[in-house]
Write a structure and sequence with these properties.
Arc Repressor Mutant, subunit A, binds magnesium ion, six-stranded antiparallel β-barrel, Riboflavin_kinase_CTP-dep, 2 domains, three-stranded antiparallel beta sheet, alpha+beta, binds flavin mononucleotide
Length: 263
Amino acid sequence: MAEATSTADPDPAAIAALKHVGLAGGLTETKVSCAALGDRLDASTQTASRRLQTLESVGYIERDVVGDGQWVRVTDAGEAALRAEYADYRRLFETDVELVLRGAVTGGMGEGRHYITLPGYAEQFRARLGYEPFPGTLNVDLSEESVRRRGEMAGIDAVPIDAWEGEDRTYGAASCYGVTLVTGDERYEEVHAIVPDRTHHDDDQLELIAPERLRDALGLGDGDAVEVRVAATSRADTPESDYVEESDDENETPADPVETEVA
Ligand SMILES: Cc1cc2nc3c(=O)[nH]c(=O)nc-3n(C[C@H](O)[C@H](O)[C@H](O)COP(=O)(O)O)c2cc1C
Ligand SMILES: Nc1ccn([C@@H]2O[C@H](COP(=O)(O)OP(=O)(O)O)[C@@H](O)[C@H]2O)c(=O)n1
Ligand SMILES: [Mg+2]
């Protein structure tokens, strides 16, 4: 995956400003005045100006300051941050949402086979995915739209593959997302999209692993169109007990008095 340009995570207030810049047309390019942005954020002009500086410093916007305002454009990294927020809201309000990424089968660098068969990874695949992958990764060249949308994977639960120490070097961690691979009328269910922390590929390549050689199982060749359906588990499927724990702290704020019914 390409190096991210951001150096720090901006705070939620900066993300709120980014959303307003996007809504005002900044996904392409828009003229923003700090006074107007401040109004929308219910904040001062100075605060709005600081938010824009933060967004620029983490690489989420590019801007050109002119006499009566500034031209602002949300960068790809900024759009990915907004899409991750969007994915969170979808998980909150919708169940079983599917992220569909589209692309074409392509050949890679011939290294996938090496990594997939290294014992430190192979043991984890067996234990955590429940199968021994075919030695290699099926590479999918994603469409432009899907390259933008893959940021939504950040909000989807993945099976973690841990980093490990080999004899002469360390091997990076990876995340495996359960997917269904669809081509024409055929579908293959037992597939994972593997996203290594360290990779030589850019965001436009998605690598898939499966128990079988998918080119044979689905009759795929270079250039064939495929759909990768990433199954999202909703929050309702994975309740976080911390959110519902009741406190019996005596110092807690008393509950509102119960309304008495008027006869
Ligand atoms: C499980 C797994 C672990 C990987 N770990 C590393 C790593 O530690 N360092 C690294 O440079 N690349 C790592 N890679 C990525 C490869 O360098 C490369 O980007 C990619 O897998 C090549 O695939 P291809 O031959 O299908 O094009 C890993 C890939 C996989 C599948
Ligand atoms: N589950 C899999 C994994 C790899 N493959 C293919 O197996 C070959 C070896 O994978 P690789 O990752 O080492 O090679 P490239 O993707 O770099 O071409 C490639 O032709 C992949 O497309 C497959 O068809 N199904
Ligand atoms: Mg490959």
